[in-house]
UniProtKB/TrEMBL annotation:
GO MF annotation terms: inositol-polyphosphate 5-phosphatase activity; phosphatidylinositol-3,4,5-trisphosphate 5-phosphatase activity; phosphatidylinositol-4,5-bisphosphate 5-phosphatase activity; SH3 domain binding
Protein name: Phosphatidylinositol 4,5-bisphosphate 5-phosphatase A
A GO BP entry: phosphatidylinositol dephosphorylation
Domain Inositol polyphosphate-related phosphatase: 149-466
Job description of the protein: Inositol 5-phosphatase, which converts inositol 1,4,5-trisphosphate to inositol 1,4-bisphosphate. Also converts phosphatidylinositol 4,5-bisphosphate to phosphatidylinositol 4-phosphate and inositol 1,3,4,5-tetrakisphosphate to inositol 1,3,4-trisphosphate in vitro. May be involved in modulation of the function of inositol and phosphatidylinositol polyphosphate-binding proteins that are present at membranes ruffles.
Subcellular location(s) per record: Cytoplasm
Main location: cytoplasm
Biological source species: Bagarius yarrelli (Goonch)
UniProtKB keywords: Cytoplasm, Hydrolase, Methylation, Phosphoprotein, Repeat, SH3-binding
Bias (Polar residues): 8-17, 76-86, 102-111, 572-585, 603-640
């Protein structure tokens, strides 16, 4: 019988599917960077004006020119802040955005070929960094709960109007109080001075905007991960330095849409990467100006979306698990006269303007905008101001105020379960990912440009693993060979679940070198945490890096893993025991030993509840290397 086909008939097959979160999708087949000049783009049916999936953004209630929001320093939180003297394991980032985050608390410090999070935060000389992490989101009226498990992404967009950077951007970055709790900063600028002589200087040296951002962020432990510039459109991606090993596959692209696609004064620059295994794309756009160009803006956006990232992770913008789209999108407020717009702003009636915002209107009709979400526009229009003031345009142009500067996001939709497309196999990718917007605001205090900057903080989370295994980072004695495990409340256990011991570099979940049943006594049912141990016979003779994997009998897959840890037992233990030395087996087990060859891949121990007493455990200590189970859990089950 094929053990892999032995699903528990009581469990519907859909619920037996593991929810894996890995990165990478098939490349879209769309043509590379061919501008779309679609005169009539597909429209989609009208829907109610509502922000899909938006949970909350907590901006102060429609203040007109709000005063700088007072930083709320939570003193009780402060008293609990993490100081650098706290042991390393308590300082470890434990973000659920990372795979198996909860399993990381055991602090494996082993270097091994499997990806692992930093075992501890390296010493930080900036003494306030840890204190700051416990504060509420800086400079905001954030009311969303967020924990250390969140991966925090702070996005800023600003049309800087060819201005020099201001001396101090700490409040823009939320660093003046409570800073340092963000994991990544994404800064999208437009109209960075790109005069020829300035560009030449910027090629030789770093441009001043990049410089000021780096200077401001580096004391807080942020480093520039990547940047992309297309004339005045600049995208900067920063991350905490200890995330660098987990930010991979970085690629950048740009699309010119100015002058029919040959000039880069308008267009989009993007950076894609996997962040802890999740494919994320950041897209900074400067779309055409002027009220009458709404349709052109959509066309250009569609053209920019044709960007294809080359290489192994060849994919388009919308193939990413999460896309953040921001910039001077240049949409304006239709219909309403200038005085009505200004009255709405002055009287704090911004909602009057929402329905006339061209982007909001386009969201209802444009297919290409489907899935893009945006928080409510509770800040006043960020364009157009007299430079150096908070006064809307008094020049001869008399531009109507507009929310030109925007930040949106999009989760990759799940393919229908029965879809035959290539992506259907990845349909679960984003099912457990959650993006929460914590605030969406403007920054009125910056006056160097005719636009105000806009920023937003997001937290990214994925489901925690169904089973969390906790193990010490070294097994030097047989008595160390213990693991604790916790199961998620929604996890359906089977008494035939087992925990396999794998040598790092294993190729298949059946390549365990030893295993033990994930026992659960009757009296255990309400316990959160369980203990199991490996006996001497189950331990490998070969020292090296190993991991434990929890195999779910119901789901036919591994649903929890540890990071690599080291096994190095004393020679007295590893001197060799013949299989017959194991006294753990019933005579029936002994009879069945022959069914599992030590040289072949072990059969999946998919135990159907049979009429044979399960062994407590099975021996893996057979002669030869790599050590294979001399008897698999499967072999111990009647009828196999
Ligand atoms: O000519 P391109 O390269 O498209 O650049 C445009 C023009 O400079 C616009 O000036 P004008 O109105 O004189 O044509 C300006 O509009 P405003 O002067 O209204 O700001 C736009 O600013 P943004 O709207 O910030 O993009 C800017 O993007």
């Amino acid at each position: 019988m094929d053990p892999d086909s032995q699903r528990n008939p009581d469990i519907p097959s859909s619920s037996q599917e593991p929810k894996a979160f890995t990165s990478g999708t098939e490349s879209s087949s769309s043509a590379c960077s061919a501008p779309i000049v679609a005169s009539s783009r597909p429209k989609r049916p009208q829907r109610t004006h509502q922000v899909e999936g938006f949970t909350d953004t907590s901006q102060p209630d429609d203040p007109v020119f709000p005063e700088l929001i007072q930083e709320k320093v939570n003193t009780s939180a402060l008293s609990e802040t993490k100081q650098p003297s706290v042991p390393a394991q308590h300082l470890q980032e434990n973000k659920s955005f990372r795979p198996s985050a909860a399993t990381r608390s055991h602090i494996s410090t082993r270097a091994a070929s499997l990806p692992q999070a930093p075992s501890h935060k390296p010493p930080v000389t900036h003494s306030t960094v840890y204190a700051q992490r416990a504060l509420s989101v800086a400079g905001t009226s954030d009311t969303k709960p967020h924990t250390d498990d969140d991966f925090r992404v702070h996005i800023i967009t600003w049309n800087v109007g060819s201005a020099m950077p201001p001396d101090d951007i700490t409040s823009l970055l939320g660093l003046n109080a409570g800073g340092g709790n963000t994991d990544m900063y994404i800064i999208g600028l437009q109209e960075v001075n790109s005069m020829i002589n300035k560009r030449l200087k910027d090629v030789l040296f770093t441009d001043q905007w990049s410089e000021v951002c780096m200077d401001t962020l580096s004391p807080f432990g942020y480093v520039l991960v990547t940047s992309q510039r297309m004339q005045g459109v600049l995208l900067l991606v920063f991350a905490k330095y200890y995330h660098l090993p987990f930010i991979r596959g970085i690629q950048t692209e740009n699309t010119r849409t100015g002058l029919g696609g040959i000039w880069g004064n308008k267009g989009g620059v993007s950076a894609r990467m996997t962040v802890f295994g999740h494919a994320v794309c950041f897209l900074n756009c400067h779309l055409p100006a002027h009220i009458e160009n709404s349709e052109k803006r959509m066309e250009d956006f569609e053209s920019i979306l044709q960007q294809q990232f080359e290489g192994q992770a060849a994919m388009g913008v919308l193939d990413h698990d999460i896309v953040f789209w921001f910039g001077d999108l240049n949409f304006r407020i239709d219909d309403l006269e200038m005085h009505m717009v200004k009255a709405a702003i002055d009287n704090n009636k911004l909602s009057v303007l929402w329905d006339k915002d061209q982007l909001n209107m386009a969201k209802d009709t444009e297919t290409v905008l489907e899935g893009f979400q945006e928080g409510p526009l509770k800040f006043p229009p960020t364009y157009k101001f007299d430079v150096g003031t908070n006064t809307y345009d008094t020049s001869g142009k008399k531009r109507k105020p507009a929310w030109t500067d925007r930040i949106l996001w999009r989760m990759r939709p799940m393919a229908p379960a029965n879809s035959a497309s290539k992506r259907s196999s990845m349909s679960g990718l984003t099912s457990g990912t959650r993006v929460t917007q914590h605030f969406y605001r403007s920054h009125m205090e910056y006056t160097v440009s005719d636009h105000k900057p806009v920023s937003s903080i997001f937290t990214l989370q994925v489901d925690v693993p169904l089973v969390t295994l906790i193990v010490d980072d070294e097994w030097r004695e047989v008595t160390d060979a213990v693991t604790k495990f916790k199961v998620a409340p929604n996890y359906s256990r089977s008494s035939w679940d087992w925990i396999g011991l794998y040598k790092v570099g294993f190729k298949h979940h059946k390549d365990y070198v030893g295993y033990t049943w994930a026992k659960q006594e009757e009296s255990d049912y309400l316990r959160q945490e369980h203990h199991v141990s490996f006996t001497e016979e189950e331990l490998p003779k070969e020292p090296g890096d190993y991991i434990l994997g929890y195999y779910s009998n119901n789901m036919n897959s591994i649903v929890g893993v540890t990071e690599p840890f080291q096994i190095q037992l004393p020679s007295s233990v590893t001197s060799g025991l013949s299989p017959s030395d194991s006294s753990d087996f019933t005579s029936e087990d002994e009879v069945k030993k022959g069914s599992s060859s030590s040289s072949s891949r072990s059969a999946t121990p998919t135990g159907q509840e049979g009429n044979v007493q399960k062994p407590h455990s099975a021996s893996s200590s057979n002669a030869g290397s790599p050590v294979k189970s001399s008897i698999s859990p499967e072999a111990s089950v009647s009828g196999k």
